[in-house]
Amino acid sequence: NAGVTQTPKFRILKIGQSMTLQCTQDMNHNYMYWYRQDPGMGLKLIYYSVGAGITDKGEVPNGYNVSRSTTEDFPLRLELAAPSQTSVYFCASSYSIVAGDLNIQYFGAGTRLSVL
Amino acid sequence: GEDVEQSLFLSVREGDSSVINCTYTDSSSTYLYWYKQEPGAGLQLLTYIFSNMDMKQDQRLTVLLNKKDKHLSLRIADTQTGDSAIYFCAERGDYKLSFGAGTTVTVRA
């Protein structure tokens, strides 16, 4: 019953460093998402993927990159970390995004990132 | 501004009812959701309502939807300490969910 697993749980980066946030799901979901959650704000969609090999930008993609080489994994890469990227990052997955479908998204526990 | 708006804080006494309110903007939303986030955890789906319904009840939870006013509410009956959490309202768009900022519910003894 793993669901969506994110690693690491916490990380501190220096400005200009790079890192990859890992996300994996074992529910055979085609659709995966990366969100960031800033204090007092709703979740903002960074990138999403509708299947292996296919990714697309969300609302706030600048400063991030993603890849989707397998159904299970959807890593998020920060190339040149900036203080504005200090946030909590959530990965999610869902069975479908077809119009009219329920599209329940299942979330990981989050990665808390500080860029100093 | 945010597409989905919620008040940020709610304090309620144990045993009382909690009502969390939300307004949304997309009149074409097919589903509206309530997610719960406990400290240090991800979001978990609490309940949802289809846009052609105006009420849904699920044990202690009652969801009311006013499509005309684009207003959604979540009522938690007999609020318990375990209900302390952040509650997010979300509306379904074409391919994504749009979330409100979350309402932090604090249950006091």
Description:
- The complex is a heterodimer of chains A (116) and B (109).
- Chain A is mostly beta strands.
- Chain A has strands at 4-7, 10-13, 19-25, 31-37, 43-51, 54-57, 64-66, 76-78, 87-94, 105-107, 111-115.
- Chain B has 109 residues and is an all-beta fold.
- Chain B is 0% helix and 56% strand.
- Chain B has strands spanning 5-6, 9-13, 18-23, 31-37, 43-50, 55-58, 61-66, 71-76, 85-92, 97-99, 103-108.
- In chain B, the strands form 2 sheets. In chain B, strands 2, 4, 5, 9, 10 and 11 form a 6-stranded mixed β-sheet that branches.
- Chain B is globular.
- Chain B starts with a strand and ends with a strand.
Secondary-structure map:
The complex is a heterodimer of chains A (116) and B (109).
Chain A: E1 4-7, E2 10-13, E3 19-25, E4 31-37, E5 43-51, E6 54-57, E7 64-66, E8 76-78, E9 87-94, E10 105-107, E11 111-115
Parallel strand pairs in A: 2-11
Antiparallel strand pairs in A: 1-3, 3-8, 4-5, 4-9, 5-6, 7-8, 9-10, 9-11
Chain B: E1 5-6, E2 9-13, E3 18-23, E4 31-37, E5 43-50, E6 55-58, E7 61-66, E8 71-76, E9 85-92, E10 97-99, E11 103-108
Parallel strand pairs in B: 2-11
Antiparallel strand pairs in B: 1-3, 3-8, 4-5, 4-9, 6-7, 7-8, 9-10, 9-11
